[in-house]
Amino acid sequence: MSFIVAIDGPAGTGKGTIAKLVAKEFGFMNVDTGAMFRCVTLAMIRENIGISQSEKIEKLLNEIKIELKEENGEQVVFLNGEDVTNQIRTPEINSFISDISKIPQVRTKLLELQRKIAQGKNVVMEGRDIGTTVFPNADVKIYLDASSEERARRRVIQNEEKGIVMTYEEVLESVKRRDKEDSERKISPLKKADDAILVDSTNLTIDEVAQKIYSIIKEKM
Question: Which of 34, 118, 141, 179 satisfies CB 3.0 to 4.6 Å to 196 for a cystine?
Fold first, then answer.
């Protein structure tokens, strides 16, 4: 038997941080689906493959190897054996990922991989369509949200920590554009599952959000 916690929501809500905390609290495996899409995006950029080049995309997906590992309490992302944890979080990746996430072959391939990784395990998986598409029967579904302004503020701080220079206005525009693209795509759009519990993190600390979600999970276990 396995226990699945699905955490969905737009960019910058703290899904990744919360998923790590939940995984640590309950001893679950943490699966960052966004990192998988970012790996495919990085691979396509490196191979100079356009979103309309179906045959090349299919070939790349058949050959690509994506691994998520825990090292010193942190998730490390490997693409074909190379640590790309930092490379997949750049503005260039951010600008392409939404378009690449719409490609049917990419979604199909990663859906299979996500389900395979979680098979028979206790897992917390975060993304944009976990509770609606990947695991519609998840034991716990959380939709984590926050205002676009607050999410942009958080992203600016993250960028500064990584040495990425972008103004607040540029980040806010990027956040709003990504929200629009993710919610309007035809395949697995970003939306709250009917049975998901909404948690708004706009005015909450990470610890306050975590405690709320811990309580929700404990009630279901």
Answer: 141
